[in-house]
Amino acid sequence: MVIDVTNIFRCQKLVKIPVCQLIRCFHNEPIPVTWKKPGIGWTKLNFDGSCKSISGKASIGGVVRNHNADFLLGYAESIGQANSTIAELTALRRGMELALEYGWNKYLWVEGDAKTLVEIIVKRRQVRCTEVQRHISNINSILPEFENCIVSHIYREGNRAADKFAQMGHDSNHPRIWRVPPDEVLVQLLEDAQGITVLRRKG
């Protein structure tokens, strides 16, 4: 568990606090996470990248759903050697390209669990890494193709369907696209559609 040093100092200033209360001071309450349906007329793209630490091999995946949480499309692909940052950006770019290809270019809500990357894209920040910046520039060049596009962050617990597709990408010998949901993601899709809340444990 990571403890903020400033919180330690605050606790030290308190006098005659029982040990159990000090423990509660350091305890982080779990965060409820729920996948949200997009508004009527909107399409939602959840994306994710996966990288295996030992082999360094990466894969991407994502899922597109409508305002009723109906499955529209899923995709997965192995992209060879890449770090997690490149995998996340590649997953996002591929999902946006597919959204354009299938005509979902009017109202698109894009959501991923890589918070720093989402902030970089939303705030149009520059990064030092040439390869990462190239991917970001490609994504920024695609964004104007959408009439309305929202990019937001969600914790991994709310991005489980996209994560499942990304994991499936490791076992794919070629890029795959599904118009009917595969059995492997049915549970995640159903729980998202039902608005099931998953608790995220911090620390």
TrEMBL record:
Taxonomy of the source species: Eukaryota, Viridiplantae, Streptophyta, Embryophyta, Tracheophyta
InterPro entries: RNase_H-like (IPR053151), RNase_H-like_dom_plant (IPR044730), RNaseH-like_sf (IPR012337), RNaseH_domain (IPR002156), RNaseH_sf (IPR036397)
Naturally occurring in which organism (per UniProt): Flemingia macrophylla
Residues of the RNase H type-1 domain: 46-168
Pfam families: RVT_3
Protein's name in the database: RNase H type-1 domain-containing protein
Listed SUPFAM superfamilies: Ribonuclease H-like (SSF53098)
